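Lab notebook, bench 4. Still working through the backlog of constructs that have no structural model yet. Next entry is a single chain of 242 residues. Request: give me the structure tokens for it.
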Amino acid sequence: MSTPDITPTVALVHGAFVDASSWNGVIAGLKAAGLDVVAPPNLLRGVGTDAAYLTGFVTALGRPAVLAGHSYAGAVISQTGSDASNAAGLVYVAAYAPEAGETLGAINARYPDTPLSAALRTFTYTGERGEQATDTYVDAALFHDAVCAEAPADVADTLARTQRPASLACFATAVTGTPAWQRLPSWAVVATADHAIHPNAERDMAKRAGSEVTEIGASHAVPATHPADVAAVIIRAAKAIG
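Model written out:
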């Protein structure tokens, strides 16, 4: 009787101000290593809403899954990793790894301001039930330095023009219950030249989570600018779990 393949699927979850295409280079590396990989959309409406969507998506995979979250998505996988029974491991890529009840705004407040904080802009719109809502985005003129400083100017310009705004709720809502990093093995990529999340915040959260840490001399957009290095960390995680 043959042994069933239990190698986990990797679910790559993008953060605010980008979309799933930010993982394209990482996807290529994971596929070359023989891993199954998916990159679902992140709704960017708030931790609870986004985690509920991701939990449904991950559960439907029907096999063990490694959840890799970039930036804000670290909070989302911290919730989904607890809610999806098939979640087997976590990879935080220049990402938040909050404690239960801890908002991203509260984490940011403990560290010096980064260039991203001065680059954020907002707009309001009227929702389906007549409620007023606010989204935030990065000023296109400041996007390069704040998000992807080492990327070529034309690449940064395209990323700025195609960015996905995020609800302010993303930074004001929190993980409920026990965050997944308390029960699942985790790995963390610290982007040492990050201008969005303070690198020391990334280090401190990774230490608190007990993550295996890899530091990369990169901007916040490390999945896009250093895909091979990020893929290598995720491959190690998948092999350790599978």
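Notes after review: The two ends are 19 Å apart (CA to CA). The first helix runs from residue 24 to 32. Flag for follow-up if needed.
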